[in-house]
Each structure stands twice: as C-alpha cells, then as structure tokens.
Specification:
The protein is mostly helical. The longest helix is centred in the C-terminal third of the chain and has 27 residues. It is globular and about 50 Å long.
Length: 165
C-alpha cells in the first residue's frame, strides 16, 4: 500500500460528496455556447478521480445518478450524460490497478481516452435524438480535462492530506 492509498483510505465521505457537488454546480453554470465547449468536464473528472481512488464509494451506480442530474440540469436527452459517464467509469474501474501505478502524465492520457469515449457517446446519443451533429468543438473538452488531471490529482491529495493532520 502506498502513501496515496493510505491517505485516500481515510478520506471522509463528506469530502467526496462536497467535491462532487462543487463539480456538478460548475458544470451546470450556463456559459455562452462557444465557451462551453472549452470548459473541462468537471463532474466527469471528479467522478473518475473518486472511482479511481475510492471505488467502494463511487462506482457505476453513482455515475448513473450524477449523469441523470446533469441531464436534468442541462436539459439534454434523458440518460445521455448518464451513459457517457458510466462508460468512462467502467473503463477506469476495469484498469484501476494499472492506472494507480502510472505517473500523472500516463494517467492523464488514460483519462483522455475515457473522456473521449464519454464525448463520443454524448455526440452519438444527441445525433440520434435530434438528427443533428453537435460540432467538433465538444471534442476540445477532453483535452482540456486531461491537461488539468495532474492539477486535480495534486489538489485532491492536498485536501486529503490537510484533513488528515
């Protein structure tokens, strides 16, 4: 067991819930359309982070619930975000032990793949619901999110360590 595992083993559920709520509120803020494609998928990133480090608390079921809340909040087809986040969480849970051994750079590449899958699911479901292509600007968000992954990991480790003292 590494030091990171021991830090996250004692993380309180309150921190997990508060971080997921903050990410959800950030995703539900109405930004102008050109800017919205450049913002990171904060709910997906936080769900992936906690499913990587605390799979006993955050799994596919919680990803489904968070995705449904996102669908209701954004007014998208019901189940669109739920299906996308569930697919990404499944990939993280399936490769969890390998990802924990990766450096932050390799973790960011893996997260990029998971978020690209989520975005692809969102585009396909939106296409079948409206028969319109949403545009290529949605595929920028996974790259921005992957670039922010090391910062998110370090920040969450800092919060876990500061709560431990």
């Amino acid at each position: 067991m590494t030091e990171i595992d021991s830090l996250h083993r004692h993380t309180r559920k309150r921190l997990i819930i508060l971080s997921l709520m903050a990410a959800l509120f950030f995703d539900l803020i109405p930004f102008p359309q050109p800017l919205a494609g450049w913002l990171p998928a904060s709910t997906a990133m936080m769900t992936l982070y906690w499913s990587l480090h605390r799979p006993q608390n955050i799994g596919i079921g919680m990803a489904f619930v968070l995705g449904l809340i996102m669908d209701v909040g954004l007014g998208t087809p019901f189940g669109q975000h739920a299906l996308g986040i569930m697919a990404a969480v499944y990939l993280v849970e399936h490769n969890r032990h390998q990802m924990l051994g990766y450096s932050y750079g390799y973790q960011a590449l893996t997260i990029l793949g998971c978020l690209m899958l989520m975005t692809l699911v969102l585009v396909i479901v939106h296409f079948f619901a409206t028969h319109q292509f949403t545009g290529w600007n949605l595929f920028v968000s996974p790259f921005i999110s992957a670039l922010l992954w090391p910062l998110l990991s370090k920040f969450m480790l800092y919060l876990a360590y500061s709560r431990r003292l």
